[in-house]
Each structure stands twice: as C-alpha cells, then as structure tokens.
Amino acid sequence: MLKLLIVDDEQIEREGMEAILHKSFPDLLIDQAKNGKIAVEKAKQLNPDIILMDIKMPGMSGLEAIEIIGKDQPMIKFVMVTAFDMFDYARQAIKLGVKDYLLKPSKASEIVETVGRVMKQIEEEREALIKSMIQEEVLQKTLTVVETDVVTQLLFDHVHEVHLDMLVELLDIHSTNEMFVMIVILPSGSEKFYSQVKQIVRETRSGWIGALYGNHLPIIVFRDREKSFRSQAVHLAREILSISYNDPSSNWFVGIGTVCSSLDQIRNSYQDSLLATLVTSVPVKYRFYSDLSIPGDIREFKDRQIEFSDKIRLGHWEQVQEEVMNLILYFEKEGVALIQAQQRILEVLWITSRVLNELGVDSKMPLYPFQTNNYRLLSSETSKLLQSMKNSYLEHYDRLEADTIHQIKHHIIQHSHEDISLEQLGKKVGLSPIYISKMFKEKLGINYIDFLTECRIEKAKKLMADPEKSIKEISFEIGYHEPNYFSKVFKKNCNISPKEYRKMLLGKRD
C-alpha cells in the first residue's frame, strides 16, 4: 500500500485533495499536515511514498520542509503545489528533487493524473529494485559455482569449456602476485560447517574456496602485502578453527602450503599443504609446510608429486608401485634408519590415500600393522598396502553401471546447448570428473570438450538450413554466449566459416 502526505496551510485545500485522491485511489493511505514543521514530524512517523507540498506557508516554507525531509528520506517523491507560477520556485524545487508540480486551483483530473504518474513511477522503481535483487542473488550463486570451478581447475588440472582466465575475471576477489594454499581438514560428517568456513573467507576477501573433497577443503589465499605471510595465514587459520568450538569431535586441522608467485605454480603449494596435514597430533591445529623436517630425498619426491598424483588418478598402478619401491631401495642404499624410512614411505602412502579420497574412492588410511625390522619386510608390507588401495580403486569403478558412458553421451547430446561441466556430469552418474575425462578418451577416443563441441557444431549445421535464423541466434541457441567465439570454433572444426557454410548449404538447395 502506497502512502501519501498532503501538506497545506488551508484545510479546505487539504480535504478537497484527499477526497479527490481517495475516490480515484481507494487503496492509497492518506494523511495531512497543516504546515512545514508538522510535515517534517509526520514524514518521520508515516514514512510516505509521496508528499504533496504547498510552497507558501507561514513559518517553515514548503521548500525548506522538502530539503529537511529529503535528506533523511531520499526515496520520497515530492509534488510541488503552489499558486505562484514563478521560475525561481520551480528552479529551487528541481534542485531539491521535486518530481512534478500542481498549480492552484487545480482540476480534479490534473490532481489524479499527476499523482497517478508519480505512483506509476514508484511502482516501476520497486519492480526494477526487486528484479535487480533477484539478478544479484542469481549472480552470487553463479559466482559461487565459478569460484569452486576455478579452484578445481587450478589444483586438479581439470579442463573445462570456459577458459580459466575468463572465469577468474568474473570473480570479485582479484588475484595478487603472491598466493598460497590452505587445506582445512574436517572430521567426518562436518559438511554442515562448509558454509561457515566459506563465510569467513568471503568476509576477509582474501581468497577463493574450493569444493569439499572427501574431508578436506582447499582454499587459495592471496597475500596481503600489509601483513607477513605467517601472520596472515595464522590469523585466517585461527578464524576457521574457531568454528570447531561448536563441533564436539574437534578433529579439525589446517595445513598451510608455501607461497608461490603465479597461479600456474599453485598446485605446488597445494601439494605442500597436503604434506603439512599428514600428522595432525600437534599442540596447535595448524602447521606450515616450511616447518616440516623433510630430508632431501623426500623433497625430491615432492617435486614429482604432481606427476605421481596424476598416475594414481589415471589408475597407472604399476608405475605407482615402481616409484614407491624405488624410493625404498634408495633409502636402503643410502643407509637411512629403518624407522625413519618407514615413516617417509608412510607419508607417500598417505598422499596416495588422499588422492583416492579426492576421486571418491572409499580407502582407509594406510598404516603399518607393526614396526618393521628389515627393509625386505618394509617392501613386502608396503606392497600389501598399495595392493589394498589399488583394489579399492578397481572395486569403486567396477561397481559403476556398464552403460555409464552411454548415459553421459546421451546427456551431453540432449543438453549440449547448456553450460555442462564435468562436475555436473559427475554428480549425475556418481563418477569423479577426472575419471569421466579419462573414460571419454579411452572409450570414445575423444576428450569431453571435443565431444561437446562436435554436438554443438552438428546442431548448428542443422539450424543453418533455416534462413530465418541469424548466425548470432544460432550461436546462442547451441550454447555459445559469444557469436565471434562460435565462428572461430566452427571454422576450426569445419575449415569454413558459418557464413560460408550457410551460403554453400543454401546454394546446394537452390
């Protein structure tokens, strides 16, 4: 319900206007004020949408009242009512934001028309505001998806249709020249705390938060030049860990990776942060990778850790086995103490287990059943643990439906015009995005993006047979938001531009 205040020192004028307006706008709530001073007080109480303000009144003038009210309540629409058709008054009123004016004496039709016009403007502004709020809400939800997608691409080397640089530009937290990764380890069943962690990161505007993988949550944090690296990381870690006060299990932990100078190197920091979380039985619930005592041999292995993790993801277990066994042989050759070697190999096995958890494979944390007393036994027990993890990996994918690849293929064909991501496909069929990418290449001899592109191109070719559709319309209809980009993709795949193809197609029909 809209509210209107009539301000005039003449009672007959006020009551006459109210009667006219009430007849034409029965739902309009109307109140009166006999001078500017009372109008100021009434405006505070009523919070009107429209004020019909007489200009010449004893005491406080209408223009003075408009200025005072407008400062406190800028959304109010003022209509000037005066018997003086004078330029100076009109000029001052315009400066104060008066939307319209009425000259005394006014016809009933003029009053109704003027107030109706202002009421329509208010309704349009409210509709625009609601639409803007809805769009903002949709945008925020979209940006949340974009943020997790960016983190996924950076840390796990996923390939998506939308280029990473384009996604980064959409985010409201812009990257800096230095960054590092923090991994928050959550206890089982603590998914409910995900939104709280995300809220803390958003409030600090310090980084991008990824999706929850198994029980760990990756965060890419951008360096704050006004703080030291350690103070910034400790402050954010403590803020996040403060959430755990409401969690009875309190098995939270934060691993903090090293600082790197570009997003291209961020996976190194991610691997460092993983190593920092391997042993959580420390007095404080966070650890810097740089505080770990890691001998040169393990540091050398860490440099190959990304490649090692990819071998696990791709199921190249013979290579994984060979690399771990070679590490054991290296320790034996160098005369490393057996207990220390066993701990270092266990750290490598933990990394393997973490990668499996990322893939959705239910794998128990590997532990040696006893302290080995020779290197031969260490090799034997390590092989058993690796075989157990390999079996979990194979069982996980053996449980999948035989026609999964056909389900995915059919879904992409049917929805190729939409923004389909590997994550969405993964949720639909219960597979990890990495496995879907691998399966496409092995089963169809083509990667996911190329298959999606082929579907769109084939659909575009069919649509081009309709001369009524423009190339721009076709590009939007098949799922490309940028016509120029569609033209480049089409030409790359067909060795001919869309316009040339259509000309050739329609020419053949003639």
Write structural notes for this entry.
This protein has 510 residues and is of the alpha/beta class. Helix content is 58%, strand content 10%. The chain has 21 helices and ten strands. The strands form two sheets. A five-stranded parallel beta sheet has the order 2-1-3-4-5, with helices on both faces. A five-stranded mixed beta sheet has the order 7-8-6-9-10, sandwiched between helices. The radius of gyration is 34 Å and the shape is elongated. This is Response regulator. The modification 4-aspartylphosphate is found at residue 54. Keywords: DNA-binding, Phosphoprotein, Transcription, Transcription regulation. Residues 3-119 form the Response regulatory domain.
